[in-house]
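Deliverable D4.2, example record:
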Amino acid sequence: MRLFAIRQFAGANLLTVTLYFALTGVTFYLPMTLMAGWDAALAQVSAVMLPFTVAISLLSPFTGQLTDRYGVGPLITLGSLLVDLAFVGLAFTAPLQQIWLAVLSLMSVARAAWRWWSRPYQRP
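Output generated by the structure prediction step:
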């Protein structure tokens, strides 16, 4: 427990727990909301969630190069801020029920930013 007395360690763990909690909530409740609340077809919901997988595959080499060039700190900061903004954007645009305009674009931003945020933690 002495590790949590170190501000940087405690802050990084708090950020990690918060972001993973948000990601879990979004990836569980968003498809349920789209299908049950907005009467979206399963194919539409799948298309909205697709950027999660595509972003990981396409952005991994790029974020690795960014990590080597700029270090871990800026990527974690920028990535977590973009993820937060995308999730807040989802909350504010939910009443619009715009799957393609609001949800897909914000989920794409969130996933790309998540890749920036999570890449530095996956270094050997």
